[in-house]
């Protein structure tokens, strides 16, 4: 990789911090939703709130030169009036300072899904008032940490947050309402542009981007019907975030289709102007799998995601009525959570994004969730090592072909709370003994990654020959 390539790992505040009612933190919508429904929660998570020094020490010893994490909005802003919680501000000063003292570049996300509950109560992201609250929060943190932090991203995975919360209904606010899905999507993208504007107007010296759950689109064949379905799928999965944030343009064919059935009058002329004028300068792509698309063949919309892993392979199903269907290649390999393992999709996805947008790319998440016995003496997660090796290999190919990829973050730093999948879905390079004061124990993959970081990628085994029966965009 090029000099100064960022090698690190990633987490999110709600998923690793714990300390849910400490240090003046107010509840997020996740606390309320999980407590109310008696579901596994992140009250303690990986106890990073108390053990962050140990985690950063492990990063340093593991050869990392960066750490991607998010700030918990409910730790920083106390209420609707926008009052600041000094203890929360101090906590992140400590984390940032600890990173810097250890040669770890902080890469910060403003919003990784833990919306303060007081904002959910006024309508959450489907409400324009939350856009203003986000601007206020962004201004506070830019002012506090701006001289220490170079890399900022506004949102983590708007699509997952909005579709899961407002349409699929498996995340809070757990509803199924297309009109609100469109509103929340739009307001998040507007808030992204407003935060970018704010950042520039404050004369900050770093860089600002957005993180997207990237699903590179492939089609089952080359027919016109498939091409149209692929375009619809690309709008649905990717373009409404990437085109909007990077080009400042919401895909017009998508707006046209939505306009036929839904009320878009909440989108104002000034909003389009703000979006056009305030675009990001880099993009973070989270890559887990591609989306393989065929034409819509009838029936109602189905958005069924295998969330527990228990349902078995092939039980996810995605049909968007009149738009497209997603299918899975039966010859592929899948994780225990029904996610296709397809490193070639990362290579092709980077090339597609780079050709289309031409801005610097960071792979802000990539990793594999597994059931693991962490009580053994040494945790030999060979499957994870193979997975990571093949994905880094894919990035190296893209770089060799000219793509400007500047960093790579494994999800996740340590085992953590995986939303509705609880704590059993382990992603970490470092195991957490959730039963035993969250003791840390590095896995084999941690030692393997140390060599990758320290050799700047030279220890990666270059092996995969790519070929595909399917058509990419
Ligand atoms: C996406 C999200 O950013 C993160 O919160 C989640 O846990 C991982 N990917 C794994 O699914």
Automatic annotation (TrEMBL):
Its EC number is 3.2.1.21. InterPro entries: GH, GH_1_N_CS, Glyco_hydro_1, Glyco_hydro_1_AS. The active site is at residue 365. GO terms for molecular function: hydrolase activity, acting on glycosyl bonds. PROSITE patterns: GLYCOSYL_HYDROL_F1_1 (PS00572), GLYCOSYL_HYDROL_F1_2 (PS00653). It is an enzyme of class 3 (hydrolase). Keywords: Glycosidase, Hydrolase. Pfam families: Glyco_hydro_1. Belongs to the glycosyl hydrolase 1 family. PANTHER family: GLYCOSYL HYDROLASE, LP05116P. This is beta-glucosidase. It comes from Bacillus salipaludis.
């Amino acid at each position: 990789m090029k000099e100064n390539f960022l090698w690190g790992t990633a987490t999110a505040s709600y998923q690793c911090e714990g300390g849910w009612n400490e240090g003046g933190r107010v509840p997020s919508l996740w606390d309320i939703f999980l407590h109310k429904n008696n579901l596994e929660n992140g009250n303690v998570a990986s106890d990073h709130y108390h053990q962050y020094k140990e985690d950063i020490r492990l990063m340093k010893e593991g050869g990392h030169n960066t750490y991607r994490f998010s700030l918990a909005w409910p730790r920083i802003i106390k209420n609707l009036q926008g009052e600041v919680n000094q203890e929360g501000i101090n906590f992140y000063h400590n984390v940032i300072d600890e990173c810097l003292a250890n040669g770890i570049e902080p890469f910060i996300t403003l919003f990784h899904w833990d919306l303060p509950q007081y904002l959910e109560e006024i309508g959450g992201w489907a409400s324009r008032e939350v856009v203003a609250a986000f601007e206020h929060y962004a201004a506070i943190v830019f002012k506090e940490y701006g001289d220490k932090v170079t890399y900022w991203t506004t949102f983590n995975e708007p699509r997952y947050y909005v579709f899961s919360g407002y349409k699929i209904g498996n995340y809070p606010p757990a509803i199924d309402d297309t009109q609100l899905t469109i509103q929340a999507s739009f307001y998040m993208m507007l808030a992204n542009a407003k935060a970018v504007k704010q950042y520039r107007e404050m004369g900050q010296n770093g860089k600002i981007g957005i993180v997207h759950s990237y699903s590179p689109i492939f089609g089952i064949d080359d027919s016109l019907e498939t091409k149209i379905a692929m375009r619809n799928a690309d709008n649905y999965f990717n373009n409404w975030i990437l085109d909007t944030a990077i080009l400042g343009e919401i895909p017009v064919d998508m707006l046209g289709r939505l306009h036929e059935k839904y009320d878009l009058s909440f989108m104002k002329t000034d909003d389009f102007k703000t979006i056009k004028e305030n675009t990001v300068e880099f993009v973070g792509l989270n890559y887990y799998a591609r989306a393989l698309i065929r034409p819509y063949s009838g029936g109602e919309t189905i958005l069924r995601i295998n969330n527990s892993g228990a349902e078995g392979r092939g039980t996810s199903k995605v049909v968007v009525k009149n738009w497209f269907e997603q299918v899975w290649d039966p010859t592929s390999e899948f994780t225990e959570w029904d996610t296709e393992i397809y490193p070639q999709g990362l290579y092709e996805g980077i090339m597609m994004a780079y050709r289309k947008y031409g801005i610097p790319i960071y792979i802000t998440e990539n990793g594999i969730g597994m059931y693991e016995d962490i009580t053994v003496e040494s945790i030999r997660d060979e499957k994870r090592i193979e997975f990571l090796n093949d994905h880094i290999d894919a990035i190296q190919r893209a770089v060799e072909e000219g793509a400007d990829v500047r960093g790579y973050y494994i999800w996740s730093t340590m085992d953590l709370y995986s939303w509705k999948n609880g704590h059993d879905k382990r992603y970490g390079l470092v195991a957490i003994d959730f039963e035993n004061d969250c003791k840390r124990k590095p896995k084999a993959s941690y030692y393997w990654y140390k060599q990758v970081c320290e050799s700047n990628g030279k220890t990666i085994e270059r092996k995969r020959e790519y070929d595909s029966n399917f058509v990419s965009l």
